[in-house]
Amino acid sequence: MKKQYGFIRFDNIDEFETWLNKQNVKRKVNRLQVHNMYLPDYNTWNTTDKRVYGDNRELGRTKSLDDYGKNTWNYPDDNNHYIAQHFNVFPNGKITTGRDLDSTPIGIKGWNTNAICVEIYGNFDYKQDKMTDEQKRSVIAIYALLCKKFKLTPNADTIRPHCWFTASGEYLGDYISSKSAKSCPGTNFMDIGNTKSAFINKFYPLIKNYMKNESYEENEKPNNSSPKPTKKLVKNISKESLNIRSSPDWYGEIIDTLNPGDSLTYVAGPLDAKGDPTKMYKCKNNVYITASSKYTKIIEI
What is the pTM (predicted TM-score) of this model? Predict the structure, then answer.
């Protein structure tokens, strides 16, 4: 987690969930908006943002969006921020805050009251940016956690993309290219699309599944068996801290460490990992840790 310019960057979903659960939102929230930025896109992320902001791309871009809002619509929240949205989700899966949660967003004309606006970095129209797995996981997680926070059921009444509305704010109930204000969040959003059938058959079920299982898997099915299965943990049985990685890759990003005696919630494995014959366990929130019996052990509770 990092704070700068009055915004917060969350480096993983656990950080975001902990922060969100502590927020005391006074206004009524019963709508979640889905947007993509279109521009900036992935090319901007890998060129301009990388050159200008370096390893601070998320907060640097958030500040830039805030400056744009001040110069364009000049509609501040109580923290003197002008950015339109409440949250931004970046290609690496990191999330930043935007407007104060008690402030109405500038997202969808006719559907801003009582809404939370989420902007997803990239251009997800057909044959444009292909959303990374890291960003997909964070997109599903942020909507699931917002639904939990505000006691919402994911459906077409509570979660709507911008493209289901006209530029004047008329609700179309689906993406109609000749009438919709724009294609946002993209005609190939999450390899799903932006139509009502795509959201009903694929997007909402992913969010509901996360709310039940606290994980994102495109092909994962809810477990309705009874009795409730035993919970498994991956425990650090060594005398040293173990690296927690963002992918099953021994040369991948280290996002945290697991102290001796501490545990992570087991999801799957042992799984093959890149860079070394030693396998890894997949754990809650899509993180990975060594499956070597010298260092870890599966326990049941």
Answer: 0.72
